[in-house]
Specification:
alpha+beta, single chain, 6-stranded antiparallel sheet, 8 strands, Thiol Ester Dehydrase, Chain A, 151 residues
Length: 151
């Protein structure tokens, strides 16, 4: 895990990949629980028998399930110190270029895209690239926006 302390270190990291998380196993139980929480019970995610007949050969994770791993995987990659607090501000350009089969593993790479000053702090844009253990293409690429405020 990389620790970045304060605004100057954060600005110096602009353009750098700051780390990669550990691999996280995608289980059917986790996908089913996500379906229950979100109400998205589309069969391609929750019906292993029916999903076997698709080109994927089984169930696949919801794209938003993959994206929802960002906070926990980010905690494995990057720690920011020297700010009073931070908040999620949103996302730019979210894409799901490849499926993530249940039973595969996923990890996340983070890159500091930009650090822009705002009133009372900075806006941080991270490029998050989720890689599946099952293929060459990323399973999700998103730009995450956070606002970090000075103490």
């Amino acid at each position: 895990m990389r620790t970045i302390t304060g605004l100057e270190e954060l600005k110096a990291a602009e353009g750098e990949e700051v780390g990669t998380s550990e691999w996280h196993e995608v289980t059917q139980a986790a996908i089913d629980a996500f379906a229950d929480v979100t109400g998205d019970h589309q069969w391609i995610h929750v019906d292993p028998v029916r999903a076997k007949e698709t080109p994927f050969g089984g169930t696949i994770a919801h794209g938003y399930y993959t994206l929802s791993l960002a906070p926990s995987l980010s905690d494995e990659v990057l720690q920011l110190e020297g700010f009073a607090f931070g908040i999620n501000y949103g996302l730019d350009r979210v894409r799901f270029p490849a499926p993530l089969p249940v039973g595969a593993k996923v990890r996340m790479r983070a890159k500091v895209v930009s650090v822009e000053e705002i009133s009372g702090g900075v806006q941080l844009k991270l490029e998050l690239t989720f890689e599946g253990s099952n293929g060459d293409k990323p399973v999700c690429v998103a730009e995450s926006l956070a606002r970090l405020y000075k103490g």
